[in-house]
């Protein structure tokens, strides 16, 4: 195994998008940011040097960070932010994970422009567990979202008013909106391909708030990995990626030479919620030798934005490649409702109550709307044995009331969250099952729930209210897919399992940034059973202070 050192310098860079120039935050002036390429088992040292205008942290999305929780990155959870002018070294090893992960800013909405791919190839001397080895890999495909307004100002305005933030102005492939947007066709992402080859394509959904359907005109895709875990090969013309998720596919370029669009647009099944109904495109080009550039570009057909059947068909087709290593016991069983609600505004000033009917938007897990601390991080407070005033360890394992979670028009009195910084304590080594139940208190929609520090098995998912009696029998305990982000279906549920074998403080949250802003988050505190986090590495000397 090798070790790589990289400097990631945060700085302001000027780019042109949608007919205008903008100053954005970047890593090393690149947008998307640099691609990290490693082999399984390698270690990375990333020196974050903040020459930007904002506090910054970086998160290595999906990296397990075994005992290196100080390098996980969510601000005020595992570290204080790196202030302008300061630096911090992230150090970690990527082991027992292969495929595609990514990295992104984990502070405010800065990940809109501060993100990049992390490619994990098999160790030297080993190969992919595919029937056909790809001839080559194409450049990673990062799906994103572009705002004309500074994304930090977008979220600040929403927080000030209590209203919903602006939706983005474009979806993007490799930071380019593509042919269908104004002033964008010249820079449309282009992937040259060779007739007859089978290539490996890696997709990352780095969009802030949009789950995406993806299709490539004229070509099927065979899914071989998701979230850096191999899957049983599944051939399809349609992919669905929730924000945070990655999918690796094999594509054989066996069609008549020409140009083919890769296209992505929103899957947003929420009723009455504004969605970005635009489509981003990239071009797959078999080459000028065939004079293809004079011919029209083939466009794939994408499902309607609210096609839940198409979404469900994709997600329920994924299986792990290998038999699951799943303990049969469950030591900790949690039932967590995830959803958007509203804060009653009686105690706040009117200009902060721009939500529906004079409320503020809020989101919660089990009716607790998560609040980040500001004086230190949760991990630092715990490590120093002084949670007092920073967090409490009383996160509820069940919602405060039970009712029909998926019904519309449930009395709001039943569902106005309380704000708090609460963690749920897990004993080191315990087998944990979590039922994630989506609610429809206010505009039910899919919630991509992401757990830091772990991969989990997705045993089952379904629509409606989870029914322990009937639904437990549907669990796939043989070959469930392993992921770090699960799209909890709109008005439905998903059941996940993991073993709490990584000591530290681990955020779990909706990967729609608008929902984490509203509090759809909680944290697990995993103790190692010897009283202190003795097996977590010591805090690094350059850990920033708040
Ligand atoms: Cu990719 Cu907490 O995030």
TrEMBL record:
Belongs to the multicopper oxidase family. Pfam families: Cu-oxidase, Cu-oxidase_2, Cu-oxidase_3. Its cofactor is Cu cation. This is Laccase. GO terms for cellular component: apoplast. It catalyses: 4 hydroquinone + O2 = 4 benzosemiquinone + 2 H2O. It is found in: Secreted, Extracellular space, Apoplast. One of its GO terms (biological process) is lignin catabolic process. InterPro entries: Cu-oxidase-like_N, Cu-oxidase_2nd, Cu-oxidase_C, Cu-oxidase_fam, Cu_oxidase_CS, Cu_oxidase_Cu_BS, Cupredoxin, CuRO_1_LCC. The keyword Secreted applies. Its EC number is 1.10.3.2. Binds 4 Cu cations per monomer. The lineage of its organism: Eukaryota, Viridiplantae, Streptophyta, Embryophyta, Tracheophyta. GO terms for molecular function: copper ion binding; hydroquinone:oxygen oxidoreductase activity. Its main location: secreted. Keywords: Apoplast, Copper, Lignin degradation, Metal-binding, Oxidoreductase, Repeat, Secreted, Signal. Residues 10-124, 140-288, 394-528 form the Plastocyanin-like domain.
